[in-house]
Amino acid sequence: MAKEKILVVEDEKDIVELLQYNLEKENFKIQSANNGQRALDLVRKNHPDLILLDLMLPEIDGLEVCRILKKDTKTSHIPIIMLTAKSSESDKIVGLELGADDYITKPFSMKELIARIKALLRRMNPEAKQAEMIRIGDVAIDFSKYLVTQKGKPVELTTKEFELLKALINAHSRVISRDKLLENVWGYDYSLEITTRTVDVHILYLRKKLKSIADRIITIKNVGYRLELES
Ligand code: CA
Predict the structure, then answer these.
(1) Separation of 10 CA from ligand 1 center, angstroms?
(2) How far is the CA of 78 from the centre of ligand 1 (A)?
(3) What is the per-residue pLDDT for 189?
(4) pLDDT average, residue stretch 206-219
(5) Domain segments of the chain: what residues?
(6) What is the DSSP track for 28-72?
(7) What number of other Cβ atoms are within 10 A of residue 135's Cβ?
(8) How far does the centroid of ligand 1 lie from the alpha carbon of residue 84, in Å?
(9) 90 pLDDT tier (thresholds 50, 70, 90)
(10) How far is the CA of 217 from the centre of ligand 1 (A)?
(11) Which parts of 94-212 are beta strand (E)?
(12) What is the separation of C-alpha 100 from the centre of its chain, rounded to a whole number of angstroms?
């Protein structure tokens, strides 16, 4: 089995090193980010299995990082354990309201933290396994590997095309509006001039690349799209 990846978001170097040392001993793969922006970048790039998130961070703080990740359908499934200072009871509450999955108070026992990590990963896993792979007609999608095949042959999809396909799949054959797709797939790319027209264009690309299921990607005029999962 591949090592599970944990992203440690913390700006105090000593704590990062301590966590890295102890978690690697438990056979986890560790990456760390010392500020909120870098954490967001790493999550989107490397898809960690779990995030240890300190709340006190420079620039974008931990609560904001949590809010952004839990709002985005691409990252909302990733479990987050918050590291909080003992005094900040309200941070804890806000964090859990924002969707954090667990919290641990500093100073923490390494043994307890590791137990919490393992419990959380176990809790997430059955779900993750179910959704890891899906087949629609001749097309198979492996979410964990970002891999799509058609009639057994790999199909090259861009990240956006892949995310769009995923959003359609996650709607379970129901219609999903262009605005919603735009928000789910492009939500955080403020740097680009993106409109609902972008969604239409990418739907065209998807139909072209996934010919065998092109007619299952159905246009609902003036609303959006739906993907018929069952034939
Ligand atoms: Ca900190």
Answers:
(1) 5
(2) 21
(3) 55
(4) 96
(5) 5-126, 129-227
(6) -EEEEESSHHHHHHHHHHH--SEEEEES--SSS-HHHHHHHHHHS
(7) 10
(8) 9
(9) confident
(10) 46
(11) 102-106, 133-136, 139-142, 147-150, 153-154, 176-177
(12) 13
The arithmetic mean of pLDDT across residues 39-46, rounded, is 94
How is domain 5-126 classified at the architecture level of CATH?
3-Layer(aba) Sandwich (3.40)
Q: How far, in Å, from the CA of 81 to the mean position of ligand 1? A: 14
Q: How remote is the CA of residue 116 from the centroid of ligand 1, in Å?
A: 20
Distance 54 CA to ligand 1 centre (A): 6
- Decide: pTM greater than 0.85: no
Of all residues in the chain, the percent with pLDDT exceeding 70 is: 92
CATH code given to domain 129-227: 1.10.10.10
- Tell me the CB-side half-sphere exposure of residue 125, using CA atoms within 13 A: 8
Measured from the Cβ of residue 229, the count of other Cβ atoms closer than 10 Å reads 17
Place of tokens 């301590």: 18
CA atoms of 165 and 215, how far apart (whole Å) = 14
Per-residue buried b or exposed e for 201-221, using 16+ beta carbons within 10 Å of the residue's own CB: ebbeebeebbeebeebbeeee
Answer yes or no: is pLDDT of 129 > 50.
no
